[in-house]
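note to self: dont lose this again. the chain is below, predicted strucutre after it. 219 aa total, dont forget to put it in the shared folder this time
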Amino acid sequence: MKAVILLICSLIGYLFGSIPTSIVIGKIFFKKDIREYGSKNAGGTNAGRVFGKKVGLIVIIIDIIKTIIPIIAAYFICKYTSLNNYGVTDYAYQFSAIFCVIGHCFPIFAQFKGGKGVSSFAAIIFCTNWLLTIIGLCIFFLVLKLKKYVSLSSISCALILPIIALVFTIVNLPIGMYYASYSYFYTLTIAISGILLIIMHRSNIKRLINHEERKIKWM
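---
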């Protein structure tokens, strides 16, 4: 039964993550497929470049919400129903989180061509731990201020936050929100999501190495 519950949570997380926000908005309001313009990526950053900053922000917000919903739903359903008897609450929301990122990057509703996982990764941090959220924001905007690369800021968070989560787990620092408990599996969840984010940024990494990555101009 535990395996069935985790499978269902994973499937729901994947399906929510697979909602191709920027593709839907692009086709409905602009009659364009975002994957054919700019960096050809279906994430919020490229949507902002192609359709404008406001649209990009809307895409990011929706992508964050679509990740938060199945994570919180998995927690509360498994915590406050008879499913709690199977002891899968923490694993359920974390499986949901991981598969939300997978769905965002490889959406079944968009030929498995999605975003790079930044919004989903951020959403997991945001809805599970307030201190990691603050630290993540500080890292992101500090790197962005110094280097002017959104991709480098995202990659930096993906590299550093799992390490910080591991340290908090080791010292048993009880600062997680009520639907997140520090554990090695939680750290693994953050690490897996971060690794996937980095993999999806491999083309950006090549451009960073070759000094060809596009810098922001608004900071």
